[in-house]
C-alpha cells in the first residue's frame, strides 16, 4: 500500500487533493500498514534477516516493517518523503533523543535515498521496496528512480526486494480500486489504477541492472473492523487521490463504501483476500 513509497499522488494537472495528511498517516499506521505483515515476514524469513543484516527500507512509511527487522536484530535505515509518516516511525523506533543516540544502528531519513548517503550509511546487504507496484500508472518508473539512488549504497551481491500486487483475479481489492479509476476518468492522463501486469517486477529489476534471484507469492488479506475503517485504510494508501482530485472526498467515500458492500460480513467486518508478489534480485 503503496505508497512511499506509499505517498500522496498529485494529478498531472498539478492539483492535489485536500486531505489531512496527519490523519491520513495515522490511518495508515493504525489500519492499513499491518495488512502487509505476511509479506514482510515471508521476505525476512527467506533472506534470513538477522544481526548480520544491514537493511535499507525505501518508502518505509510509519516503520512497521523496520520494527520487525529490528526485532530480528538487523540494523536499519528507513527513507520516506512523508514527514507525518516518518514522525510515527520515529515514535516506534527512536522515541526520544536519548534513544536515538543509543541506537546508532537505526536511522530515519526524510527525502530520497541520497539523504541516507549523506548520513554516511552504505554497504547495505538488503534493500526493500515494500510498497506494492502495479496499481498506478507510472509507479514502476517511480520505483526505478528510487533504486537508481539506492543501489550505490548497497554492497555487491546485496538482496533487493521489490513487491507488487498479484493478478487482479487473485486480489479482491482490485474490484474496489476500479472505483478510483472510474472517478478519476475526468482527469485524463492522471495517475490512476491500472491492471497489474505479470512481469512488472522483472522489468523494474532489469532496468535497474539487477539480477533476479527468485520470487514468491504471499496471501495478504485486507481485514477491517467495519466499512468506515476500510474506507479510511484504503484512502490512506494514496491510491484514491486522483479520484478525490477529480470529484471530492464525499463522492469517493460514498462510492467506495458501496464497492465494499459485497465484502462486508454479517458482523459488519470487511474481508478481502489478496495475493501479493515479491521478487528478490541481486546487485551485480
Oligomer: single chain
CATH class of the domain at 21-171 and 193-223 and 274-282: Alpha Beta
Relevant CATH superfamily of the domain at 21-171 and 193-223 and 274-282: Vaccinia Virus protein VP39
Strand order of the largest sheet: 3-2-1-4-5-9-6
Shape, principal axes of CA atoms: globular
Query: Can you tell me the CATH topology of the domain at 21-171 and 193-223 and 274-282?
Result: Rossmann fold
**Number of helices, counting only DSSP H or I runs of 4 residues or more:** 12
Structure class: alpha/beta
Architecture of the domain at 21-171 and 193-223 and 274-282 in CATH?
3-Layer(aba) Sandwich
Helix-strand sequence: HHEHEHHEHEHEHHEEHHHEE
Low-confidence stretches: 1-14
Overall residue-averaged pLDDT value: 87
Residues in β-strands, percent: 15-25%
- Distance N terminus to C terminus? 29 Å
Structure summary, number of beta strands: 9
Largest sheet, strands/sense/barrel: 7 strands, mixed
Radius of gyration: 18 Å
**Helical content (DSSP H or I, runs of 4+):** 25-40%
